[in-house]
Design a protein that fits this description.
Number of helices: 9
CATH architecture: 3-Layer(aba) Sandwich
Largest sheet: 9 strands, mixed
CATH superfamily: Ribokinase
Distance between the termini: 29 Å
CATH topology: UDP-N-acetylmuramoyl-L-alanine:D-glutamate ligase
Order of helices and strands: EEEHEHEEEHEHEEHHEEEHHH
Radius of gyration: 19 Å
Number of strands: 13
Structural class: alpha/beta
CATH class: Alpha Beta
Helix content: 25-40%
Strand content: 25-35%
Oligomer: single chain
Strand order of the largest sheet: 5-4-1-8-9-10-11-12-13
Shape: globular
């Protein structure tokens, strides 16, 4: 089992068509065809693990509202343990990101969310829930969307306690110093440059230097940097591997980082080498960016993509 800890977001998609510009303002008029929801943020990692037939448990915070109830229900449908999802009753609403999409293009996104740090009571509740479930897990993913769940205090408690398990982190630069001692991190190029305090250059030698600096600074086992059209760079403490992108067509990069960390962790959990895991995660990313919206990749899709 893989535990996922982080910021739960509901991804809402409004799908439609555009045939004219509004007479009221120079904006497109969208004729709405349908609306759907998907688990987003850290919960999108759960969707990806489910697509990979990997048991999971979610830990995070939602509001005492209809979207929060929907999150619990949807996690249940995915056979993910939702006992670690804390429902706040103090006015904190479930985070929702709404995207309006027409002709396969995102026209606008609007967010309803709070980035306020969770209080000590909520943190203590989450920590107790994680401790109770950790014995059943061989890996943990800390999915940091900087919405208040992964506080510095919680990170400083969790990472030492989870030693012995695979600890993967999808990071945010503001929390860099609190990731010390994890197994690996999966920053994108911008995040890696900020975390390493280096220029953002997408050149092999420069990215290799960033990876080595982060590896040493945070005492990690692995660093996997995603580099958009240039694929990924993996540093295993001894050698750097530059993996060319597998993407053929890019329609939407939404949630691709969640796919990468879910696939990389699932592969490591089943005993794949870091390089094998990175190559598979790279293929999975190639699958999801060819879809519109927050997407996932199954083992079959990954295998078919490789063929």
């Amino acid at each position: 089992m893989i535990l996922v800890i982080g910021d739960i977001i509901v991804d809402e998609f409004i799908w439609g068509d555009v045939t004219r510009i509004s007479p009221e303002a120079p904006v497109p008029v969208v004729n709405v065809r349908n609306v759907d929801r998907r688990l987003g943020g850290s919960a999108n990692v759960i969707r990806n693990l489910h697509a990979l037939d990997t048991p999971s448990a979610m830990f995070g915070v939602v509001g005492n509202d209809e979207p929060g109830n929907w999150v619990h229900h949807r996690l249940g449908e995915l056979n993910s343990d939702d006992a670690g999802v804390f429902t706040k009753n103090n006015g904190r609403h479930t985070a929702i990101k709404t995207r309006v999409i027409a002709q396969h293009q995102q026209i606008v996104r609007y967010d309803r969310e709070s980035a306020e740090l969770i209080n000590e009571e909520t943190q203590s509740w989450l920590l107790a829930s994680i401790r109770n479930k950790a014995k059943d897990a061989n890996a943990v993913i800390l999915s940091d969307y900087a919405k208040g769940v992964l506080t510095p205090a919680l990170l400083q408690l969790l990472i030492p306690e989870l030693q012995g398990k695979i600890i993967g982190i999808d990071p945010k630069p503001a929390n860099t110093n609190y990731y010390h001692g994890a197994t690996f991190i999966t920053p994108n190029l911008l995040e890696a440059s900020q975390m390493a305090d280096m220029k953002m250059l997408n050149e092999d030698a420069h990215v290799e230097a960033m990876a080595k600096k982060l590896h040493s600074k945070l005492q990690l086992e692995l660093v996997l940097i995603t580099r958009s059209e240039k694929g990924m760079t993996l540093f295993d403490g001894k050698e750097c591997f530059h993996i060319p992108t597998a993407a053929r067509d890019v329609f939407d990069v939404t949630g691709a980082g969640d796919t990468v960390i879910a696939t990389f962790t699932a592969c490591l959990s089943r005993g794949d080498s870091p390089l094998e895991a990175a190559k598979t995660a790279n293929q999975a990313a190639g699958v999801v960016v060819g879809k519109v919206g927050t997407a996932t990749a199954s083992w079959d899709e990954i295998a078919h993509f490789e063929s």
